[in-house]
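INTERNAL AUDIT FORM
Audit reference: QA-55
Scope: verify that the stored structure record matches its stored sequence.
Auditor: D.O.
Record contents follow.
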Amino acid sequence: MAAGLYADFVVPDTDVCSAGNHAALLDTKILRTVVGGRTVHQADHTSAG
């Protein structure tokens, strides 16, 4: 990353680094996706979790 550049990223509902098993990763929901500095997906908060 550098100043003036955009980062594309997702925000999962699970800490994927400490999920513990593959099943937990498969159940992970994406809460937000940001591409080029703009939110292109925002999960409905009532369905997350």
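Auditor finding: record pair retrieved intact. The two ends are 30 Å apart (CA to CA).
Action required: none
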